[in-house]
Design a protein that fits this description.
By secondary structure, the chain is of the alpha/beta class. It is built from 14 helices and 16 strands. It has a seven-stranded mixed β-sheet with strand order 4-10-9-8-7-5-6, sandwiched between helices. Strands 11, 12, 13, 15 and 16 form a five-stranded antiparallel β-sheet that branches. Strands 1-2-3-14 form a four-stranded mixed β-sheet. Helix 8 packs parallel to helix 9, helix 12 runs parallel beside helix 14 and helix 13 packs across helix 14. The longest helix has 22 residues. It is globular. Keywords: Aminotransferase, Pyridoxal phosphate, Transferase. InterPro entries: Aminotrans_3, Aminotrans_3_PPA_site, PyrdxlP-dep_Trfase, PyrdxlP-dep_Trfase_major, PyrdxlP-dep_Trfase_small. Pfam families: Aminotran_3.
Length: 461
């Protein structure tokens, strides 16, 4: 660990954290008697806390963000150089890195044409929702305004994003919600709603979306918002046949397809974007997290030219343009970091590494499944994998969230940080989640799954 900060200084930091910080996603009562954990430094795939304890990070910064790993001097230099030259201008005018990164990004996204910058995944999704609503008013008298979302998917923390989120425990106590958001069924074959398998199940899960559209009225539905792989809802891969049928349904009813790549984008699944694994052409793609690997804040709402053209008019109606602003979408640090982040992925062939190491992780997890009856299902794409824990394989009864927490704590004690679904899905917060930086090596993967092996043996016997 870097010795520039002395232990006394860190004691002061711990005290300041306990006294003044409001952390994300946690109950603070235990911090009245226990020290908060402070992550002090990161290098490559490893981080160190205030006590000098070293951890392998298998969650890319806790929330699936640090795709190229820690300590990237070239990204820091790119940000420094850019903000010294021109750090910010509001988005009504352009900047050099904004134009350059938009061009570089769209080169990876055939069929997409325009980039709208903001600074978080929630905000990127809000922009898309607003575009859908404005198109409804411009073209459909306001009627075609409903936005469909999928059970178990998650799209952000704002009230509108929670309104379109399929995780009830994330939503609890924050209503009332924005009207016009309608849920469609999940597509997790392991928790099948229909007595079908494989492609037949995938097509049936997609047909369930059409049933909702017909129930609501196709003339009222403007968009369908889906994650390419459901992330926090349990790392759910769409079954074969699902995505082609979804695309067909959207085109049949003139419904805009919005794919939320906040987690899966920029290499996580082994492709530049998760949807590119499934041969579909979206109308909106939203992204954040791995776009700049957490070195600076940036998110993007990317659209087709056809969507963009609907906001171009003469002056006969002064309200016809997209009347939206994201103040810090004008910060050039995010775009400079994003360009270098993407360059690193290209230079170091990290998409290839993601596919290879993702395959190794799935193989390792399946070997653990053979060894530990508590693992009911293993699934994943690239370096984004999950293992669902069950008390009984026959009934698929989930283990308790407390037992999952015990596994995480045991693994943490071994010097490995993993993730899990937590307080999101009533009764189904039972999946372990793995999303290490795309630089992971075979030794890293083996260390992560080895720690899980030991934890499962101790927690479940």
């Amino acid at each position: 660990m870097n010795q520039n900060i002395s232990r006394n200084d860190l004691s002061d930091v711990v005290a300041a954290d306990r006294a003044h910080m409001w952390h994300h996603l946690m109950q603070h009562k235990p911090l009245e008697t226990n020290d908060p954990r402070i992550i002090v430094e990161g290098r490559g795939l490893k981080v160190w806390d205030q006590n000098g304890k070293e951890f392998i990070d298998s969650v890319s910064g806790g929330v699936w963000t640090v795709n190229v790993g820690y300590g990237r001097e070239s990204i820091a230099n790119a940000v420094r150089d850019q903000i010294l030259k021109m750090n910010f201008w509001g988005g009504a005018m352009g900047t050099v890195p904004a134009a350059q990164f938009a061009e570089k990004l769209l080169d990876k996204m055939p069929g997409m044409s325009r980039v709208y910058y903001s600074n978080s995944g929630s905000e990127a999704n809000e922009k898309a929702f607003k575009m859908v609503r404005q198109i409804a008013h411009k073209r459909h008298g306001g009627r075609k305004h409903k936005i469909l979302y999928r059970e178990r998917d998650y799209h952000g923390t704002t009230i509108a994003c929670l309104s379109g989120g399929g995780q009830p425990e994330r939503n609890a106590q924050y209503g009332p919600y924005t009207p016009g958001f309608v849920e469609v069924p999940h597509c997790l074959e392991y928790r099948a709603q229909w007595d079908l398998t494989g492609e037949a199940y995938g097509q049936r899960a997609a047909d369930a979306i059409e049933e909702v559209i017909l129930r609501e009225g196709p003339d009222t539905v403007g968009a369908l918002c889906l994650e390419p792989v459901t992330a926090g809802g349990g790392v759910i891969l769409p079954p074969p046949g699902y995505w082609p049928r979804v695309q067909e349904i959207c085109r049949k009813y003139d419904i805009l397809l919005h794919i939320d790549e906040v987690v899966c984008g920029v290499g996580r699944t082994g492709a530049w974007f998760g949807y590119q694994n499934y041969g579909v052409q979206p109308d909106f793609v939203t992204m954040a997290k791995g776009v700049a690997s957490g070195y600076a804040a940036i998110s993007c709402t990317v659209t087709t030219e056809a969507v963009f053209e609907q906001f171009k008019d003469d002056d006969s109606d002064p309200l016809n343009y997209f009347r939206d602003i994201s103040t810090f979408g004008g910060c050039t640090a995010g775009q400079a970091a994003a360009m270098e982040n993407m360059a690193i992925i290209e230079r170091e062939d990290l998409l290839d590494n993601t596919r290879a190491m993702g395959a190794r992780m799935l193989d390792n997890l399946r070997a653990l499944q053979d060894k530990h009856a508590v693992i009911g299902d293993v699934r994943g794409a690239g370096l984004f994998c999950g293992a669902e824990l069950v008390a009984d394989r026959g009934t698929k009864e989930p283990v308790s969230e407390k037992q999952v927490g015990a596994v995480l704590a045991d693994v943490l004690g071994q010097g490995v940080i993993i993730g899990a679904t937590n307080r999101s899905l009533p009764g189904f917060n039972n999946s372990l989640c793995f999303a290490p930086p795309l630089i992971a090596t075979a030794d890293d993967i083996d260390a992560i799954t080895g720690a899980v092996d030991g934890a499962l043996s101790r927690v479940f016997g």
